[in-house]
Every structure is written in structure tokens, then in C-alpha cells.
């Protein structure tokens, strides 16, 4: 008898519920519901419309049950770092603030005044990003707050009534000790934060509670952690690019790299499933293209076709530059970056899109060569997973820039990783990541030219 699990995967622009039917040697994925995730402006801040996401999630679970009958498990993942604040009665105080809201500058200053950047990195291994939870929390008034719940943990609480903090996502707060996987008590004390504000830590792959009689499991609730589970690697010598709104570029390691060199190179040590370390750099990713599209009102197909015909390498921008973080005016910001660095300005949408894609491919190359240098781990191939695996031009440019084979796919790696961890938690699969990865299908290889 086949078993069916439902993965709830919330992305920055849409959420989806994907079912995975496990039977006869295959994991069959089906997207049963997709809903928009449109941030709202409230109280002068950009926020997530979390009730709408919750409704999308429950509608999706209903659609999954309609299609498959009963479900054998549910798991939730989302983007990292953001959280909801609950009062003593368990009610959400306000919609969670979006990590792209620029409010955190003051928080960064406050935290760094107490714990300088080098010590913060040596303690947590998390790269500096202005939106890390630790900086967001430093801007909050916490006196009436009883609980801080990261986004997937908040939705899981609404489904099950049980509170917890899943470890892969907890690592992105910038408050976890990467050596032990426990909160850094010293850091909480120095920052005057009560560690009890976060419900108890729990690993991915344990029972979180139940929803309408169906088990809810923790998974790699940080979407990138789930995506890395479904990288169909067959040896240790691989790098990954988890390519969606962000591109997360790096390696899977057994131990964190906490050197000053790694900090200077802005590499992070996020926690992976099975206690692995995701040693990676954040590259802006398809966000650049999505914003150009929104800005110019043009379709993706048109932009990519024109980019394919445009002159290669005409102008390159730094695809890790925080100037590209906030929404809006992306075409103007990219053009300004070209001008300021003495390069030709893109003259049409095709040149603009080409500049984005060339810049991404070069940023991937730089991140991978830094990752190899900093960790000492050699690589023989790059796995590009997530929505970007559909972008043939980007895959080809990445293979050329890195001088390595790029295995592109699966596009739905996050959902697949979420489902595989549930299936193992339910006792239907066993073994480590290599065994889980052997269930993943859907790869196309690009060789460098
Ligand atoms: C990708 C992602 C990434 C984080 C960012 C906030 O969705 O989780 O790993 O750095 O969102």
C-alpha cells in the first residue's frame, strides 16, 4: 500500500502544497494547491499576511485529502529568519515583519555594540545579513511577548496546538551554537534576551503533533535545508546551488568552518538535516530577475529569449550586494551599479536580463571556489536545484563559469526533501541522506564548454 505525505512549502512569492506518494520504488510528486504570498504594508512596515498563508495551507491540505483520501503525514517549511510574536494568551500580536523591510539597521548597531561581528561569527557561524533574527529582535519591544515562533513553527502551532523550534531554521536566527546545535546561552545573556522566549528546540523528523488525526512531522523547516536533502548527489564531492528567489551556494559539511577567513568571505554555517552543516553564501538569486520583470512589466520567456541573444559578459554587477535586497526600482539600481563601476549600461531589457544572468553565474563561481578554499573539500560536480533548474540559459552559463558539470534538478527539491524526511520519520524509509537522495529523480546535465 502506498503512503501519501503532504509538504507545505512557503516561498517568498507563493506557497504550495505538494503531495508525495511513496510506493513501488518511486516518490511521485503532485502540486495540489498553489497560492500567492503578497506582503502587506502595516504600521509603516512590510509584513507577511500570515492568516492568508494559513488559509492557503489549510485549503491545500483539504485539496490533498480530496485527491488522495487520508494523508500519512504533513510537514511545513518556509523561508528563514522571520517569526511571529505571541502574547501570554497565545495570540499573535501582529503580522510578522518581512525580512526585506529595512528596519533592522538600528538592530545591527545595537547587537554589534554588545557583541562585535568577529565574536558573533565565532559563536554562531552565521554570516552577516542585516535581516538575521538576532538583529530583527533587537528592534522589538518584547515586554509583553510570551513566545517567539519562527514562521513554520507558528503555522505548525496553529495546526497542532504544540509549540517548538525546529533546529535547521533555528540556526538562521544567529543565536544557535553550531558546534552543539543548542542555543548559545552566553549570547542570550549578553543580549539580555530570555532563551525561554523560544519554545524547546526539536530536530527535523520528529512528531510535532497532529492535525485532524493526521501526524504533523518536523522537517528541515528552513526551506534551504529541505532543498539540500533532495540534492541527488551520489558522492561527497558535490556543491549545490539552491536556486529560487535566493541562490544559496555551497557545500554540505560535517563540521562548521568558523575561521576569520570564512567570516570575511561572508560564508554561513547553517544547520542541515542529520546534523550536517550547510556551508554557503547567499547570492541574490532569481529575485533580481523577478524584480526586473515586475519593474518592466515583461514576461520571463521574453526576457530570457532576449538575454540569450544579447552580448555575453557586457556588464557584470555584484549579485551579493545588499543594495539589491529591498523591492522596487531594480532596473534602475542595476543600471546605476554598472555605471558606477565604469561598465556599459544595459540598453534594453535583453541586455539587462543578460547582465543579471552573467552576474549570477559569476557569483556562483566565486562562491564555489571560496567554499572549496575555505573548507578544503574538493568538488567534482554542481547540483542546481529549485525553480532555477528550469532556466536553461542560467544552467549553461553556470556550467561554463564554474568549469564543472551542472546537474540541474529537481525543480521541486524543497518539497521532495520535506517529503523524504517525513517518510523516514514515519518509519517508511531508513538510512542516512544518501539513501533518501536515491529516491530523487529529474536531473538534466549541462557540461561546461
Ligand atoms: C530562501 C531563504 C534563504 C534565507 C532567506 C531569508 O528562501 O530561506 O535561505 O537566507 O530565505
From TrEMBL:
<keyword id="KW-0067">ATP-binding</keyword>
<dbReference type="InterPro" id="IPR018484">
    <property type="entry name" value="FGGY_N"/>
</dbReference>
<feature type="domain" description="Carbohydrate kinase FGGY N-terminal">
    <location>
        <begin position="7"/>
        <end position="207"/>
    </location>
</feature>
<feature type="domain" description="Carbohydrate kinase FGGY C-terminal">
    <location>
        <begin position="239"/>
        <end position="426"/>
    </location>
</feature>
<dbReference type="InterPro" id="IPR018485">
    <property type="entry name" value="FGGY_C"/>
</dbReference>
<keyword id="KW-1015">Disulfide bond</keyword>
<dbReference type="InterPro" id="IPR043129">
    <property type="entry name" value="ATPase_NBD"/>
</dbReference>
<dbReference type="GO" id="GO:0008993">
    <property type="term" value="F:rhamnulokinase activity"/>
</dbReference>
<keyword id="KW-0684">Rhamnose metabolism</keyword>
<dbReference type="Pfam" id="PF02782">
    <property type="entry name" value="FGGY_C"/>
</dbReference>
<keyword id="KW-0808">Transferase</keyword>
<comment type="similarity">
    <text>Belongs to the FGGY kinase family.</text>
</comment>
<keyword id="KW-0418">Kinase</keyword>
<keyword id="KW-0547">Nucleotide-binding</keyword>
<dbReference type="InterPro" id="IPR013449">
    <property type="entry name" value="Rhamnulokinase"/>
</dbReference>
<dbReference type="Pfam" id="PF00370">
    <property type="entry name" value="FGGY_N"/>
</dbReference>
<protein>
    <submittedName>
        <fullName>Rhamnulokinase</fullName>
        <ecNumber>2.7.1.5</ecNumber>
    </submittedName>
</protein>
Amino acid at each position: 500500500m502506498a503512503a501519501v505525505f503532504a509538504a507545505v512549502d512557503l516561498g517568498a512569492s507563493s506557497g504550495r502544497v505538494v503531495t508525495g506518494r511513496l510506493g513501488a520504488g518511486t516518490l511521485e510528486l503532485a502540486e495540489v494547491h498553489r497560492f500567492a504570498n503578497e506582503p502587506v504594508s502595516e504600521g509603516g512596515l512590510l509584513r507577511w499576511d500570515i492568516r492568508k498563508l494559513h488559509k492557503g495551507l489549510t485549503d491545500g491540505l483539504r485539496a490533498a485529502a480530496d485527491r488522495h483520501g487520508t494523508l500519512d503525514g504533513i510537514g511545513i517549511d518556509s523561508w528563514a529568519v522571520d517569526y511571529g510574536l505571541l502574547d501570554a494568551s497565545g495570540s499573535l500580536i501582529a503580522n510578522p515583519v518581512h525580512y526585506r523591510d529595512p528596519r533592522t539597521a538600528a538592530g545591527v548597531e545595537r547587537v554589534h555594540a554588545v557583541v562585535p561581528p568577529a565574536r558573533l561569527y565565532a559563536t554562531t557561524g552565521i554570516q552577516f545579513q542585516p535581516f538575521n533574527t538576532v538583529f530583527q529582535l533587537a528592534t522589538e519591544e518584547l515586554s509583553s511577548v510570551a513566545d517567539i515562533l519562527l514562521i513554520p513553527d507558528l503555522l505548525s502551532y496553529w495546526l497542532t496546538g504544540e509549540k517548538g523550534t525546529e533546529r535547521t531554521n533555528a540556526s538562521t536566527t544567529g543565536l544557535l551554537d553550531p558546534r552543539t546545535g543548542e542555543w548559545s546561552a552566553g549570547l542570550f545573556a549578553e543580549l539580555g534576551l530570555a532563551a525561554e522566549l523560544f519554545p524547546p528546540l526539536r530536530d527535523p523528523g520528529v512528531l510535532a503533533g497532529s492535525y485532524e488525526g493526521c501526524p504533523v512531522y518536523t522537517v528541515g523547516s528552513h526551506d534551504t535545508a529541505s532543498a539540500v536533502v533532495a540534492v541527488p548527489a551520489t558522492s561527497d564531492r558535490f556543491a549545490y546551488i539552491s536556486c529560487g528567489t535566493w541562490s544559496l551556494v555551497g557545500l554540505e559539511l560535517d563540521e562548521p568552518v568558523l575561521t576569520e577567513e570564512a567570516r570575511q568571505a561572508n560564508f554561513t554555517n547553517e544547520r542541515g538535516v542529520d546534523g550536517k552543516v550547510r556551508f554557503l553564501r547567499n547570492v541574490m538569486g532569481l529575485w533580481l530577475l523577478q524584480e526586473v520583470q515586475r519593474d518592466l512589466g515583461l514576461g520571463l520567456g521574453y526576457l530570457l529569449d532576449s538575454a540569450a541573444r544579447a552580448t555575453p559578459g557586457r556588464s557584470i554587477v555584484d549579485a551579493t550586494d545588499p543594495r539589491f535586497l529591498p523591492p522596487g526600482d531594480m532596473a534602475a539600481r542595476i543600471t546605476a551599479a554598472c555605471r558606477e563601476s565604469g561598465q556599459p549600461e544595459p540598453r534594453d531589457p535583453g541586455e539587462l536580463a543578460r547582465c543579471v544572468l552573467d552576474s549570477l553565474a559569476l557569483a556562483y563561481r566565486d562562491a564555489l571556489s571560496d567554499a572549496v578554499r575555505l573548507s578544503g573539500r574538493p568538488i567534482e560536480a554542481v547540483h542546481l536545484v529549485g525553480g532555477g533548474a528550469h532556466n536553461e540559459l542560467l544552467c549553461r552559463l553556470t556550467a561554463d563559469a564554474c568549469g564543472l558539470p551542472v546537474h540541474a534538478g529537481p525543480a521541486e527539491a524543497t518539497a521532495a526533501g520535506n517529503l523524504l524526511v517525513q517518510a523516514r520519520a514515519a518509519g517508511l524509509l531508513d538510512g542516512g541522506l544518501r539513501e533518501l537522495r536515491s529516491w530523487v529523480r529529474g536531473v538534466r546535465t549541462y557540461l561546461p564548454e
